[in-house]
């Protein structure tokens, strides 16, 4: 058994080692939590962007359909105008 005067020093070293291990454990836990939160936020952002992209695609499809209707209507108006000019 070590002399009595070395026991407090050994206890102090053990306490320092345990404190260091606890700090490292807390640091690791905080880092893991931060990484999980960042991953969740990134996944949410990707999901929102995908939804937004789908909505924009649908709007573009709708606008293209309206554009086609307008072009057809303009063609009909042009044909009617030419027909009127022929008979005038």
Structural class of the secondary structure composition?
Answer: mainly alpha
- Beta strands, count: 0
The profile of the biggest β sheet is:
none
Structural shape: rod-shaped
Rg from alpha-carbon coordinates: 38 Å
Counted by DSSP, the helix tally is 1
In terms of quaternary structure, what is this? single chain
Could you state the order of secondary-structure elements as H and E? Answer: H
* CA distance, first residue to last residue: 125 Å
Low-confidence runs of at least 5 consecutive residues: none
Question: Roughly what fraction of the amino acids lie in strands?
Answer: under 5%
Mean pLDDT: 91
Q: Share of helix among residues? A: over 70%
Task: Describe the SSE topology.
Blueprint lengths: L5 H82 L1
3D structure, described in words:
The termini are far apart. The chain has one helix and no strands. Helix content is 93%, strand content 0%. This is BZIP domain-containing protein. It comes from Panagrellus redivivus (Microworm).
Give a quick set of tags describing it:
88 residues, mainly alpha, 1 helix, rod-shaped
Task: Give a quick precis of the structure.
About 95% of the residues lie in helices and about 0% in strands. By secondary structure, the protein is an all-alpha fold. It is rod-shaped and about 120 Å long.
